[in-house]
Design brief:
Number of helices of chain A: 11
Shape of chain A: elongated
CATH topology of the largest domain in chain A: inorganic pyrophosphatase (n-terminal core)
CATH superfamily of the largest domain in chain A: inorganic pyrophosphatase (n-terminal core)
Number of domains of chain A: 2
Oligomer: homodimer
Helix content of chain A: 25-40%
Structural class of chain A: alpha/beta
Radius of gyration of chain A: 22 Å
Order of helices and strands of chain A: HEHEEEEHHHHHEEHHEEHEEH
Distance between the termini of chain A: 47 Å
Number of strands of chain A: 11
Largest sheet of chain A: 6 strands, mixed
Strand content of chain A: 15-25%
Strand order of the largest sheet of chain A: 6-7-8-9-11-10
CATH architecture of the largest domain in chain A: Alpha-Beta Complex
Low-confidence stretches of chain A: 1-6
Largest interface: A-B, 60 and 59 residues
Chain lengths: 344, 344
Amino acid sequence: MRAKKNNLIPWQVDSQEEFRKSVEKIANIIKGSESFVIAVHERPDPDAIGSALAISYGLSSLGKNALVLSVDGVPDTCEYLPGADKIVKGVGDSRFDVGIVCDAGNLGRIGGAAAAFENVKNIVIIDHHPGEVNGNDSRKAFLLVVPQAAATAEIVAYLLKDQMQVEITRDIARQLMAAIVGDTGALRFANVTSVTLETAAMLTSLGASPAEAASEIYENRSIANVKLLGAALTAISSDLGGKLVWSRITLQDFERCGGTDSDTDSIVNQLVAVKGAQVAVLFREIEKNKVRVSLRSKGSAEVNGIAAKFGGGGHAAAAGCTIEAPLPEAEMLLLSEVRAWMES
Amino acid sequence: MRAKKNNLIPWQVDSQEEFRKSVEKIANIIKGSESFVIAVHERPDPDAIGSALAISYGLSSLGKNALVLSVDGVPDTCEYLPGADKIVKGVGDSRFDVGIVCDAGNLGRIGGAAAAFENVKNIVIIDHHPGEVNGNDSRKAFLLVVPQAAATAEIVAYLLKDQMQVEITRDIARQLMAAIVGDTGALRFANVTSVTLETAAMLTSLGASPAEAASEIYENRSIANVKLLGAALTAISSDLGGKLVWSRITLQDFERCGGTDSDTDSIVNQLVAVKGAQVAVLFREIEKNKVRVSLRSKGSAEVNGIAAKFGGGGHAAAAGCTIEAPLPEAEMLLLSEVRAWMES
């Protein structure tokens, strides 16, 4: 419901002028080139795939050749997207005018795809991860990096629509919507800003749907995944008046449910969603004496400090580590650290 | 990213002119009156409470007296909202110029609160539920009913901001955001339109946060609720190549987990989120020979037909019924109906 002038930069960037220059430079490089390879980071997520596909469709509409390169292919969650079946895992000896790194800050993050960049005339990096831009790359790259954006797709929407006057077709809208929904927990994480929502509104008015993207990305749990979630929720415990919540998945659970540790990725998020929980911990018995631990915090608690004590790491709100010990011992060791630290 | 002219009606209403007249009429009634009672439906949800609070704050800023009346009080999910502690369960003998029914289509839906409307000069109904407006009410009411709106809060935002030039303060923005998040599954249900997202963007730019609302409304599960969810997910079964998914919560589960049936409300949604599921059914053993059944469908299947066969009802995508039989028998009866119908 807010009118917006053209050419207004939607994010609070350090310097409006510098930013405008970067965007114009990149728009000009794109306009003056013919062939593009768009590479995403290893193990790509919907933001990487959706943004890269949108760039390739946008460039195609301008009469350019554009190829999306993902060395690890396409995750299940993105198979529904227009163009997903055209994404390649390698480019052989093909040569390109421009290499675009999408949703990553440097060539190191795109793995084997970096080989396709050896002969390009220009490198463009479009990303929203803070601090990932790597000054050690010997080759000059043109940067469009906006840490304030919830998803790389926000930046791509701005570049294509507002700067290059590319028509956002329904296909492109759906690609960008998947990207935004994927990096914002379907518009519910704290990274969502009014720019994110305005972009989502624009995409919806052009035929995309947050419900479609959320269903494809988040409602695709396997039965094994659901049963493992059930096992973890059944075994939930709490302490410190409910501020500390934890649970476990045992080797037996994995056998009974038929899943693997990759099916347990998001379970700890459901633990930290319990009323009153400040810190949540999920223990997974990977081998007889090897326990993988995920920690989450809500509010001010910083759990990466705890993880670091056990050789792990992560962010303040989400961290992990692996403990080489039997499950009961691993639980005791880690929880007593958490208790001591929460009570201090 | 779309500029919007003032006074443009954001929804596809039947007649722009009729709608504009209704809105102006209601704005004029409000401007010409001094005291207001704003009543919400029984067992109110965040859309009812958040919208009613926003109206009351908006009217107060215009120098009017406004009281929010909820005969069932305030749900836990809304306790964090500014003004929630001022909501009353009754008004005694107080008299008001205008009675506003918020998030319901008729006086029948507000239960005992209807008594407060007996002496009002005007009745205004602000709602987005289709087909709820009751022609049997003997008293004339002024209607602002928009079935295309995902939440009543969308309509309230339009009325206050665009029509009455009320300043949307951070408090009002948070109230309206809770309302929108509550009726859209945190912006991920199919009812979300570009208007919903534009409204959410505007509210976010004024200090509200979808993340805050989602956390307060959806991340407040009790430990009992989590354990019951765990029990249901552990007992999950599937058939017809995964298209039919179901589970159960037994009397034993309720005893062991310490929860009640009201803790199981949203569990069936997690069943229908399984990959490939078209229809999901949750059976709850309420008494020895009484089983409550919730049905959900994804895609084209209409489950209210099945529920109707057992004396229940609901919508195409969400329905329910109660079967007076032991749990295994109830499961057999209902699932054989679902199978026959899905295979036909």
